[in-house]
UniProtKB/TrEMBL annotation:
Spans of repeat Cell wall-binding: 274-293, 294-313
Protein name from the UniProt record: Choline binding protein PcpA
Enzyme class: hydrolase
The enzyme's E.C. designation: 3.5.1.28
Keywords: Hydrolase, Repeat
Gene Ontology MF terms: N-acetylmuramoyl-L-alanine amidase activity
Signal sequence interval, chain numbering: none
Pfam families in UniProt: Choline_bind_1, Choline_bind_3, LRR_5
Annotated PANTHER family: IG-LIKE DOMAIN-CONTAINING PROTEIN (PTHR45661:SF3), SURFACE ANTIGEN (PTHR45661)
Name of the gene: lytA_3
UniProt entry tagged with the keyword Hydrolase: yes
């Protein structure tokens, strides 16, 4: 069965748990206007669905470009596994991604989650095999079990400052993940926080500075080659006493770590008492000791960054004097390696083929 549409005279009010989970050939579904309640995990194993529609007049649910939502769009229920867009941004009203909401999607490469989103459900992005980049909002508070599982192309993940609740195995089996950043206000990490295949993982940045920071003995199941970058000797001691492997743990100077501040966008000759990195409207800027906004190349904690003429930090591919360079979303310049999209850069960071 490839198409399922209910009669316009249907009196159906409840569709139960996993009702469509095993319909592997279903491509299009139209829910009747009579439906008021949907059970959980409706589309758990659905691998062919391209579009979910909702009959006009339904008071509980809505479809936006084939994506299923609650009527007020506060919950994104399901993004079809065969919806063939490569990028997507969730609506501003969305507060929750339901369990299995992006499960098994075969096309999506870039996902931007709206500010205001608070919860990511169990298996939300599981087996979204093409997903390379995901932007998590500062409003995010909860990430449930195995939300990131089997994301074969995901290369970098930045957990925002305000996440308070994590499920077990929240990140599992991310073979191309190179860098993980854990936000400033994340005070504790659960068992099996990061595990599975992590062959490409090189670095974990922990921004927390609190003496309350804690991890479990089994929080990190990672290769011994992974380096930790932390803000204090206390965080280093917490990790050393709980890691089962002998990973390098590097304490960075807090003054040299990019931190969000409440200052306005910096301008030349306007120090406002701030030296170093500041963030404004999602962009990073750097104030030097004279109070001027820096442009061009800046070296900080041993890494190179490039600031555009406007002062904002460059990310991704950019060109300087006819030469191409690449940085992670964190702004770190890649050198003597291969970029995420498969190009080689030399020891100076220049693209060579």
């Amino acid at each position: 069965m490839k198409k399922l549409t209910f009669s316009s005279s249907s009196k159906l009010e409840l569709i139960s748990h996993e009702a469509f989970a095993n319909l592997s050939n279903l491509e299009k579904l139209t829910l009747p206007k009579s439906v008021k309640t949907l059970g959980s995990n409706l589309f758990r194993l659905t691998t062919s669905l391209k579009h979910v529609d909702v009959e006009e007049g339904n008071e509980s649910f809505a479809s936006v470009d084939g994506v299923l939502f609650s009527k007020d769009k506060t919950q994104l229920i399901y993004y079809p596994s065969q919806k063939n867009d490569e990028s997507y941004k969730t609506p501003k009203e969305t507060k929750e991604l339901a369990s299995y909401s992006f499960n098994k999607n075969s096309y999506l490469k870039k996902l931007e989650l709206n500010e205001g989103l608070e919860k990511i459900g169990t298996f939300a992005f599981a087996d979204a095999i093409k997903l390379e980049e995901i932007s998590l909002p500062n409003s995010l508070e909860t990430i449930e079990r195995l939300a990131f599982y089997g994301n074969l192309e995901l290369k970098e993940l930045i957990l925002p400052d305000n996440v308070k609740n994590f499920g077990k195995h929240v990140m599992n089996g991310l073979p191309k993940l190179k860098s993980l950043t854990i936000g400033n206000n994340i005070n504790s990490l659960p068992s099996f926080f990061l595990s599975g295949v992590l062959d490409s993982l090189k670095e974990i940045h922990i921004k927390n500075k609190s003496t309350e920071f804690s991890v479990k003995k089994d929080t990190f199941a990672i290769p011994e080659t992974v380096k930790f970058y932390v803000t204090s000797e206390h965080i280093k001691d917490v990790l050393k006493s709980n890691l089962s492997t002998s990973n390098d743990i590097i304490v960075e100077k807090v003054d040299n770590i990019k931190q969000e501040t409440d200052v306005a966008k910096p301008k030349k000759n306007s120090n406002q008492g701030v030296v170093g990195w500041v963030k404004d409207k999602g962009l990073w800027y750097y104030l030097n000791e004279s109070g001027s906004m820096a442009t061009g190349w800046v070296k900080d904690k041993g890494l190179w960054y490039y600031l555009n003429e406007s002062g904002s930090m460059a990310t991704g591919w950019f060109t300087v004097s006819g030469k191409w360079y690449y940085t992670y979303n964190s702004g770190d310049l890649l050198v003597n390696t291969t970029t995420p999209d498969g190009y080689r850069v030399n020891a100076n960071g220049e693209w060579v083929g």
